[in-house]
């Protein structure tokens, strides 16, 4: 029976996913650091056999770990030592250099001979023949199997300075020649869309009143994508063709937009105080590659959202069972409503480092400016920040600001910090925002935003064997929407009271930082 593991952070979700499928499987994750973690988890399962001369020896599995060809040749990831025979991208890179062979195809050829495979989704779809058990770990990995709405144009302004970022214009320069020749209608649509977006941004710039209305009415002039009315099986064939090919890194965004356009629902304007964004809304309720997925005998997934499991298996026509894991460090958390700015000043005065969560990267920049203006040093963790840089900042006791749906929120553990200040929440969810307007019901949107906020908060939870008894303080400026963490909301508290409480428990910069 197919199984869903519903697992919040620190609950051992990956362990549970692999536990029942140790002999032979294909494991998928969208991120190589998570694949390396899964390989460590696999190594923790010790199995033994009795030899012919009555000796006990460990069972060694043959494992192939595959990344894309470009990753093999540039900065190849390496499998951790886990007691098994693992051929990985790092080994493939060495083979290429020493023997002038194709390292990628060398790993692919090993799939049928080895017990298990660990890889990213696009490699699996491109080069793995479905057989046996498929394990899909984490929700962003599931997202690979559905079209995603795409941002087309960003118009922003601040302090009277106007800027325009036409993402379609950039993509036109990166269209693969094979798509140009086989799908000229798609290329023509992109060019027409680009022309309309340029005209629209100019009209917005010229308008003196009701500037947003210019964009709202302009959405109606944007051209409909060319293949929307194709039969579903024809769309699926195009998707399989696009995903099964190897592309240059710069070409993948073109491919993603092409797939989104096949399942076009609408154009949508997302407006904030200093920014307008125009999105192509794709039908994200559509599950892609169903034929490939249904060739697997069994599919187990590990996610946080039961609704996603229901959608996934219903789309495949499969039955499944659910195993719910509990968040083991729930009682470590103390969540309050307070004046987070005043609290930040007091924490800085006492030398107690903290994390700051914002909704977006732009909000992170604004928060950093405020902290700097109040004499508080802080660094932004973004998509360019390396793990080694984060580790260095932690050792120095630096304050860090990060944003939702980013590097930290997607899986970097920071149990070293005991305090998180929630500056703002509400990252871009264009499909759910559009859907809430269409249905006049924002429950799906609220659920997604709440889940992301909690995922971010849980990044400071203890890890096994490290600070397991440490309290974790989270401060909001207003009463938060919470789900798993809701029982830990304690109401309002003054910053002065909280600072007295926190000093008793939290490490300071001048103290030695405990290492896990």
Automatic annotation (TrEMBL):
Provenance organism: Fervidobacterium pennivorans
Protein name, as recorded: Helicase C-terminal domain-containing protein
